[in-house]
Each structure stands twice: as structure tokens, then as C-alpha cells.
Design a protein that fits this description.
single chain, 118 residues, alpha+beta, 2,3-Dihydroxybiphenyl 1,2-Dioxygenase, domain 1, 8-stranded mixed sheet, 3 helices, Glyas_Bleomycin-R_OHBP_Dase, VOC family protein
Length: 118
């Protein structure tokens, strides 16, 4: 699998207040979208998330989001090493993703841009 980069996942109470801080730190403009009842802002290497406490509790268990060239390749490699696929692969507003628990218990999201809107 080709890992292209990593994004840190940060749960915030007030997305509108957090976005300008991270835009300044990352030197990048936020791309905002919703994932169910959770509002998300992708800013450079950060995924800021805000929403209902129960949803954020689940999302905060994911250590990081790994950008990969192809989620299907990642899926094959994850199966090979004995990872458990928790969710996906599925299409999201910014591409395809899956969530996997590695054999050591760490949970990561893998994301590609194959189905991302132009």
C-alpha cells in the first residue's frame, strides 16, 4: 500500500472558533463538510471534528487518518496482516475510506480520493 500522508484527528467543541486557529497554523484554508451529524474541517494535516458527544467519543478512538493511493490496496494489505475491518470501504464526501483495527489494537482510518467530487 502507498501511504501518502497522515492527518491528525482533533475533536473540538466549537468548530467555527477552531478553524481560524488551524488555518493560521497550517497556512491552509479549511475544506468543510459533514459526516452524518458531525461537522468536519480538513485543514492541512488536521481533521477537526465537532458534533454530538456520543459520535465524537467513537471518532476519537481512531488514532489518525492515513491518506493512501488506493483503499482497495490498503484493504488487501490489512487483511494480510490480520487487521479487523471495522467500517467500509465506503464513499465519503472527500473520497473512499475504511476503518481498521490493527492486531495491536490501534484503530486507523484509511482514505483515498478515488470517488472525490471534482
Amino acid at each position: 500500500m502507498d501511504i501518502l500522508g497522515t492527518s491528525l484527528r482533533i475533536c473540538v467543541d466549537d468548530l467555527d472558533a477552531a478553524v481560524p486557529v488551524y488555518e493560521r497554523l497550517a497556512g491552509a484554508e479549511a475544506a468543510r463538510f459533514e459526516n452524518g451529524s458531525v461537522e468536519v474541517a480538513a485543514v492541512g494535516p488536521f481533521f477537526l471534528m465537532s458534533g454530538p458527544e456520543g459520535q465524537l467519543e467513537v471518532l476519537s478512538k481512531i488514532k489518525a487518518t492515513l491518506a493512501v493511493k488506493d483503499v482497495d490496496d490498503a484493504l488487501a494489505d490489512l487483511h494480510t496482516v490480520g487487521a479487523q475491518i471495522i467500517a467500509g470501504p465506503k464513499s465519503t464526501p472527500i473520497g473512499r475510506s475504511l476503518v481498521a483495527r490493527h492486531p495491536d489494537g490501534s484503530v486507523f482510518e484509511y482514505m483515498d480520493r478515488k470517488d472525490a467530487p471534482e
